[in-house]
Design a protein that fits this description.
Helices cover about 35% and strands about 25% of the residues. By secondary structure, the chain is an alpha/beta fold. The longest helix has 18 residues, at about 45-60. The relative contact order is 0.11.
Length: about 475
Amino acid sequence: MRRQRLARIVATLGPATSSPDKIEALFRAGVDVFRLNFSHGTHDDHRARVETIRALEQKTQRAIAILMDLQGPKLRLGAISDGKATLKRGERFRLDLDPSPGSSVRAPLPHREIFEAVVDGADLLIDDGNVRLKVVEHGKDFAVTEVITGGVISDRKGVNVPGLVLPISPLTEKDRRDLTFGLDLGVDYVGLSFVQRPEDIAEARKLIAGRAAVLAKLEKPAAIERLDEIVELCDALMVARGDLGVEMPPEDVPGLQKRILRVCRRFGKPVIVATQMLESMVRLPAPTRAEASDVATAVYDGADAVMLSAETASGQFPIEAVDMMDRIIKKVEHDPLYRRILDTDHYDPEATAADAITAAARQVAHTIDAAAIVTFTTTGSTALRAARERPSVPILCLTPRLQTARRMALVWGTHAVVTPEVRNFQEVVDQATDTSRREEFTTAGDKIVLTAGAPLGTPGATNVLRIAWIN
């Protein structure tokens, strides 16, 4: 079940892809990580999907990662008389805490925290930015706005507040219940929505307590202002381009995507590029050329993974969408330009023994034309360092922990295998050579580069590099 590509594929499960047959078909088409969107579905739905994925894992003997994506706070209008109202450009429109139904001149906004944070001149967006308001006056329980872009509003439409940091936790009571449920199921990554500041990551880490990796979804402009701090604190990231595109000009998103990917690469944190990648395939059997180019651009930029949302959750062609994404990735990775781009963006290693060994492994593998770099790791840190180097050969990650192997399913170029604990360095060599043959990375006469830590099993202590020949 070795993937013949380096970038990974994340697919969202939903009504179109919840049966065991569909989930297995998605996996065999190329899915490495399954996303469970807790904005939709019941706990029973998600439990059944997890059980199916774990059964598939046993059947195929390949570690599969599960990402639970928490809903996060949802800011919405209250009720509108007759269900909807039309706002006209240039007119005044009031938002307040009064729960009575709204009209074309006012509406309830039951979120006191917005009024606490809002300032004159701030933009408020309704219905994914289809209606735009500018605050001209505000108080502790109201805001008077001017309609900049008119349109129709209706009951419970979403509200965005770009440029403001709201005094709210990214974890609602629903999220906390979902989190407890997901951790008990054994999910591998927890996707944290509505991240605004590093403190949000710290809050989630305290609750998760090491039972899963924390994935920060970058969807708020406020988070970008403290990007380095957020990247440093989390285990993985997602570029949620749809939400970013609502709260900032669309023309800003491509450049921001590249910036985020570079920062994640520098810190050695896996990053997913998400939202509307093959959107046409929700209803059509083939993507537009622009969509294919969009996926390719993310791969050229060095993304660890690209993600499908509605394409697999509710689309008419979920298997075809995964197959198409797999084909695009492979095509890019066989382009000589791809390797030149990765090498150009290469970052100097940190002044540590672990980084020095890992950087040397990349260079040695290239010089001797090795078939693979083999890392022995307990927590995954050694494999993450190897992936950060973006070597020209695949990374075979050997670990005694199934949890670590599952998390590595998201990481660029890494094929993780669960192996027994090793007691001495000869067992390290024997296990590396045997596993590389069995997993079809090597044949007789090939060379591999090994990295490990001594004493064996010490997390983060990568300090040994060795070349081994395959007999």
